[in-house]
Amino acid sequence: MTDGKNTLHASPKSARPERAPSDWSRPEAQQVGTVSPEESKLIRARQDSRSRMLGMILLAMCVLFFAITLVKIGAS
Amino acid sequence: MLQAEFMTIATHNIALPADWRDFLALTKPRVMSLVVFTALCGLLSAPGSIHPVIGFTAILCIALGAGASGALNQYYEADIDAKMARTAKRPLPGGRMEPASALQFGIGLAAFSLGIMGVGVNWLAAGLLAFSIFFYAVVYTIWLKPNTPQNIVIGGAAGAFPPVIGWAAVTGDITVIPMLLFAIIFLWTPPHFWSLALFMKADYAAAGIPMLPNVAGRMATRNQILLYSLPMSAAAMAPFALGETSVWYGAGAALLNMIFVALAFAVWRNQAADAADMKPEKRLFAFSILYLFLLFAVFAADRMVLA
Prior knowledge:
heterodimer
């Protein structure tokens, strides 16, 4: 559905040094200098898209729970 | 193995968060549409009434439960999916999502759907939904599918639960009618999947899945397709024979059964070994989907008019 969009996984341009996953929590491993502006923009756009979708789902769930509560209270 | 590959990639590159569309693809929306439709027909054909909000909640929970099953299935089968052309572009074999995300999404969706079904609808429906998720994700995906050519015969039970759950959401019990709806889908599943497996034989062989055409051969599979279409037709006629529907459903089911059996007979007569020459198999596969949609639609409409 989103073929080819996840270009960063296959990007040969990444300059991030090879590290073990256990190193990710170290402060120096969290430097953002290795992320190019284009990559940063792509990540932010993906995060924004997911956040918007999650927000809409949560809003719909709130409405549904409210409706279920009204029905259950009405029935009792 | 796929997980190890992903970890290697992640240590070299920046992991891009999976798109929400990839999470949607994990739920197998096409399969979900058939699940939702049969569940809706089960719900609409049940005696008694259900508040529209509770009915909607029940269908939503069944859809989410089916989505959870799909996500857990894709998590477990990512390495197999990567070997099949039909499934190689899914989010996990396509490298667009971490396996852990798929697992967490599947478990979360299952827990959410079961909780809401139990609290909002009733616990019998929630129990049936829990069993169907477990049956598909564990019994079918982990145990049956990689080990026996009867995988989709027994595993077909997982797909047969939705109308029973829909019925149970309204009535809180299970009678002979939902059991017949279960039987129709259960007996429909083998001809449906084996016709697909005949013209996708090479794909399944590459993935090492012991589908019937790969294990018993094409002719044995064609025999089984024709054989299964007969009890399936009988199960489809049973609601009319038991007086639970009008003659309109009986006539509609008889017509659909005749077409199905005629197509199954054409498959039985076909000797082709090459997928390009398997037009009867492709026709049966396509019609089998339409068959189930129409049969359940006519059944639900008939029951609603009778009510």
